[in-house]
Amino acid sequence: MGTYIVKRIMTIIPIFLLATLLTFGMINLSPVDPAEAYFTAAHIQPTDELLAQKRQEFGLDQPLLVQYVNSIMKIGQFDFGLSYVTNKPVWEEVATRIPATIQLTVGSIVIAILVSVPLGFLAGIKKNSGMDHFSRFLSFLGASIPSFWLGYLLIFFFSVKLGLFPVEGIGTWKHLILPSVTLAFPLIALYTRLLRASVLEHLQEPYVLFARTRGVHEKVIMGKHVLRIAISPMITGLGMNLGNLMTGAIIVEAVFSWPGFGRYFIEAVFNRDIPVIQCYVLLAAGVFLLSNLLVDLIQLYIDPRISRKGRQYQ
């Protein structure tokens, strides 16, 4: 098991380096000159002399290989440069916004798990029942409604009409409810379908029949065996979505004026703030890789056969 974990961790390094290379290549292939973007964001009309001075300051006059190596060294120190707009270190500004995004991500994941696990499990073991039809309707609804529209509906009913929750901003737990529900709703639709299909599949497995033949209690079969194994695809989906939630909750943050990393990225795109955009892309890659590693470790705990399967194909 230890060897499997070490190998999984070691695979992250080349993938992340590839992400840095792609990001560096896209920035250099872009028609936007970083020096010009800097002066545009600062609302300064640059002269040729100022552009040349700024290109030298950014190291753009050096060979591409040297620029890439210097970029890797700075990234290793969490140095993404200065924002073109605020002229402050990018990582310091990102660090002040990440906690809000993490808070929103955790809230949406908790809501999605609390709703989708019992709903998907009951829909699977009670096929074609009222619960099953409700879960399918909810899944269809969650996959069909755009997040921004759902967010405005929740604001209209629960904030404007009923006055139960704040319209925007961050502060108390009430500020977290509506954006978390908005972000969790598509996940509920996805995880409910995954768990339902997985439960239906595992109910047909021989080990369920053998357990019933041995007289094992039905609750033990369903809870200890079927649910534990059937939840595996849902955990995989959670790992795929965690990176998207951490870095892709842009629409929800905009609707609820949530001061997270997503809104900061949108502002950076409009301002052509290249250091912020680069930080966003690399942070998204890092979160995606780490979340998938975490999911693999959880899967290994749930099903130790994974490490044995990995050794068989060596």
TrEMBL record:
Domain ABC transmembrane type-1: 98-299
Protein origin, superkingdom: Bacteria
Keyword Cell membrane: yes
PROSITE patterns (UniProt xref): ABC_TM1
Key words of the record: Cell membrane, Ion transport, Membrane, Nickel, Nickel transport, Transmembrane, Transmembrane helix, Transport
Membrane topology: Multi-pass membrane protein
Pfam families the record matches: BPD_transp_1 (PF00528), BPD_transp_1_N (PF19300)
Localization: Cell membrane
Matches recorded under SUPFAM superfamilies: MetI-like
TM region(s), chain numbering: 12-29, 102-125, 137-160, 172-191, 281-302
Keyword Membrane tagged: yes
Family recorded in the similarity comment: Belongs to the binding-protein-dependent transport system permease family. OppBC subfamily.
Subunit structure: The complex is composed of two ATP-binding proteins (NikD and NikE), two transmembrane proteins (NikB and NikC) and a solute-binding protein (NikA).
Protein name, as recorded: Nickel import system permease protein NikB
Organism name: Halalkalibacter alkalisediminis
